[in-house]
Amino acid sequence: MTDQEKRRLFVLDTNVLMHDPTAIFRFKEHDIFLPMVVLEELDKGKKGVSEVARNVRQVSRFLDELMSGASKQQIDTGLPLPAPANGTSTATAPAGRLFFQTTTLASHLPESLPGNMPDNNILSTALTLQQEHPEMQVTLISKDINLRIKAAVLGVPAEDYNNDQVLDDVNLLYSGEAELEANFWEEHSKNLDSWQEQGRTYYRIKGKDTQAWYPNQCLFLDDDSKFEAIVRRRDGDDAIIEMATDYRSANHAIWGIRARNREQNFAINMLMDPEVDFVSLLGSAGTGKTLLALAAGLAQTLDMNIYREIIMTRVTVPVGEDIGFLPGTEEEKMTPWMGALMDNLEVLTQTEGGEWGRAATDELLRSRIRIHSLNFMRGRTFLKKYIILDEAQNLTSKQMKTLITRAGPGTKIVCLGNVAQIDTPYLTETTSGLTYVVDRFKDWRHSGHITLLRGERSRLADYASEEL
């Protein structure tokens, strides 16, 4: 029997369950083993109001449901895991079982092995199971890279928990734009319809090329024509595209802000479109994500009255040492985290009229811009609000779902982030909540995404991004 044919037994580390409470249902037809030290660590982490504590309590509830009415003999022989949550079970591949450590296992670790006791206990358990059950392929699942390295050194197969991984490679992430071939118009001229409606130019295009397009995807020709359009509807080989508004000109400036490159122009088109309820902007530092989102929000809140107010929020993950408790109200506590908001407001409020004019403008803006903490979002419903979620790459997929489902009628959500700057433990570029929503929303006709490529902050910042 080869390793591929062996029935697999997965030993779960505590951090896997803390990261995803449903992990025990994610291993299809394979068996799961929970060491006693994992249950002890879960018990220590159940108190509090943090996301981790909530996840731990949910794991405990799942385990309690599985053990409900089970006898000691049934626990020893393994509790059957629900087949629907594991995938469709068949006669050849029955649903997996959940095993608990019910006896003391002999340790096979070197006495001088460094490290903390819980990790060493889990390693010892996996090593003992490997020796006692040679007919099974025992694998340790952990989010802890160092534990996986120690396991590999001792000959225990170890893997990361990849069930929440959206893509194999972040380079495969949907960019939001596509370049058309140079002969695009020649190929589609026979089956081409064009018309104008409410001052906008539309084209109906037929052909196999349209099958690869997504709703609100940005299309462009990289030639002298500077053709830029947005996909509005697609049905099989038939697609309707709309010419993008050129926000590079002074006539179409948004709160004094003009697009400086193609990607910024596409971003403003989506931010200003009331039919697009969800916009995600990816890009490195200095590409203009926050400035564009704020300018579009102010224009639609103060000038057009589409939204009642702007709500700005972000994850409070410090880059360096934490500065401790902060005094004041929720907004005052969040102010140190909102440096990006204040910096961009300075650019947007360079009004004439001296000190008095600037003070009046600042007062007006502060009355229409609210700063909220993500910690208090549960249970809320936002009506006709323009929500900017900054540093969204630090959110998990579950936190992202919690936030987006707060949106009520007439609300628009704008997610900003850079997946190359993730500060949350156990999150990677491929498991970030921002990557998750970009991939899941790309087929929805009321969402738009664009990856900003060029830095526009300053020549110093651009050079530093390239060379440092």
Automatic annotation (TrEMBL):
Domain PIN: 8-149
A GO cellular-component term linked to this record: cytosol
Record's keyword terms, sorted: ATP-binding, Nucleotide-binding
Gene3D superfamilies named among the record's database cross-references: 5'-nuclease, P-loop containing nucleotide triphosphate hydrolases
InterPro entries: P-loop_NTPase, PhoH, PhoH2-like, PIN-like_dom_sf, PIN_dom
Pfam families named in the record: PhoH, PIN_4
Leader peptide range in chain numbering: none
Molecular-function GO term, any one: ATP binding
UniProt family annotation: Belongs to the PhoH family. In the N-terminal section; belongs to the PINc/VapC protein family.
Record protein name field: Phosphate starvation protein PhoH
